[in-house]
Amino acid sequence: MMPAIYGNAYDITQAPGLVAIRYEMIHETRIIRLDSTPRTGLRSHMGEARGHFEGDTLVVETTGFDPRSAYRNGSPKMKLTERFKPISADKIDWSMTVDDPETWTRPWTFGMTLTADPHQPLFEYACHEGNYAMRNILSAARAEEAASAGGSQK
Predict the structure, then answer these.
(1) Average pLDDT of span 118-133
(2) Could you read off the pLDDT of 42-55 as tens digits, one per residue?
(3) Which residues contact 117 (CB under 8 A, 6 or more apart)?
(4) How many CB atoms lie within 10 A of CB 154?
């Protein structure tokens, strides 16, 4: 949920027994179970999340990060605790606390306000802006063909 230079839109959906957060960046989707199902112990790039409500605040604890993608090179023991607290109809106060005594001297927290914007849909994650590669490749090939045939390209 940390902001980047682009692709910062999210879609948060709650369904019975889970919350899903779909990210614009790389179209990843986190599934946060809201039950007491035991953790699998498997490691993944997004970790394994379990959530519960404290009043109106969704608290999500994530462990089991793959060491190759753990936040800021955290250790396999890293635990990420997030809090999603509604503060108005279109705003959520989001914070995350990183707890990893093998990487940092003490837990630390970062937070920001997430704002719903109906005019900011999740865009397809694809490199397409100004992508003229195929057009240029075909244009050059047609020019070479025309030159080989003794003509010129129009």
Answers:
(1) 75
(2) 888 888 999 999 99
(3) 90
(4) 5
